Amino acid sequence: MAKLLWGMIGGGEGSQIGPAHRLGAGLDGAFDFVAGALDHRPEAGREYGQRLGLAADRAYGDWREMLEGEQGRDDRIDLVTVATPNATHFEITKAYLEAGFHVLCEKPMTMTVEEGEEIVGLARETGRICAVNYGYTGYALVRHMRAMVARGDLGKVRMVVAEFAHGHHADAADADNPRVRWRYDPAQAGVSAQFADCGIHALHMASFVIGQELDRLSADTVSCIESRVLEDDAQVNLRFDGGAAGRLWTSSIALGRQHGLTLQVFGEKGGLRWAQEQPNQLYWMPLGGRLEVMERGGPGLSPEADRASRVTMGHAEGMPLAFANIYADLAEAIRARKEGRDMDPAADLYPRAEDGLRSMAAVFAVAESGQGQGVWMDARPPMFR
Ligand code: NAI
């Protein structure tokens, strides 16, 4: 099968998320990394791109130059990943969709709900894929949780409890460090800090697993470090459109927590518990039964989990392999389009622009509810009301 061609914007040397994308995209051999505008400093981006193996004429200085260069080629890239800082996502994603490229954009997809609606409209109009990197939904056992809920193992879902709490911004003495400070500054970060950065991962995962979209929410937001304008901790109560209730806690001052993404789902017939720091085990408690630990790669899991599992049971799989599953879904989606066939439904799980938009509506609802003493807000984007 011919390889798909892949390009990347952002993710330069020393960036946090660039390496995980390169590992994820490269894992199955479906994508060849052939183009990049990797750094906000053109020379550094060109030089690093070539060090990673890009040809000199495809190691671009910036994303506009890359757009122009790739548009004119017969062997233009099939997919571009946008892994730059948040405020640039909208402009870059919009330009590449308009030029007919498929895009995988980092989260948050945009800075406003209006921009999110524009991206959804554009993806629909152009028929291009616009995926959003809620990459943790690529974990095999997260996909298994979703399959268990969908086939009715839990009965009706009553409650979902999601957390994404870490302690990496807990040092008050370091709050003025420019690398930290901008995240809590509305001029640079927008209306929300911790919820927009981490809370939306937990919220999206909750929605993905229970198969319900967020309807409304009530938020208690706190700046535990006084100099911060935006929240570093939030507790959000949720109501979903299928009747489930939810609780979501996100924090950046939770000392002792590392990555801290966890999900618990409680239904009429059983409960599930999963934590990203131990992603190869899923805890299942059926009503009236015994607690069971499911191992990734073990027998009797769902086709979705089997497809997302790469090495045999007992060997740890982690985050870059979860990202690889998003890339594998996208490779299948792009190939199916090229070959004029339906895509494998087990691969049709990658997060969409619609998910990115729903997150933005939730971000604004959290910010407003937080300022309004926890008043319940409609959390749906106007487009989906
Ligand atoms: P970072 O600050 O570590 O790296 C950003 C990189 O983008 C740098 O190499 C920088 O030179 C480059 N860059 C900046 N402006 C650019 C431009 N205009 N053109 C080309 N390159 C440019 O940031 P980090 O932490 O890697 O985050 C990037 C994005 O990924 C953010 O939107 C963040 O929210 C998201 N992210 C997502 C994660 C996930 O799990 N899905 C985890 C961490 C970050």
TrEMBL record:
The UniProt keywords, alphabetically, are:
Oxidoreductase
Q: Which Gene3D superfamilies match?
A: Dihydrodipicolinate Reductase, domain 2, NAD(P)-binding Rossmann-like Domain
Carries keyword Membrane? no
State which Enzyme Commission number(s) the record gives.
Answer: 1.1.1.292
Highest taxon of source: Bacteria
Q: State a single Gene Ontology molecular function.
A: 1,5-anhydro-D-fructose reductase (1,5-anhydro-D-mannitol-forming) activity
UniProt domain GFO/IDH/MocA-like oxidoreductase: residue ranges: 142-273
Q: Does the keyword Protein biosynthesis apply?
A: no
InterPro entries per the UniProt record, alphabetical = Gfo/Idh/MocA-like_OxRdtase_N, Gfo/Idh/MocA_oxidoreduct, GFO_IDH_MocA-like_dom, NAD(P)-bd_dom_sf
Pfam families named among the record's database cross-references: GFO_IDH_MocA (PF01408), GFO_IDH_MocA_C3 (PF22725)
Give all residue intervals belonging to the Gfo/Idh/MocA-like oxidoreductase N-terminal domain: 6-134
Q: What is this protein's record name?
A: 1,5-anhydro-D-fructose reductase
Q: Which organism is it from?
A: Antarctobacter heliothermus
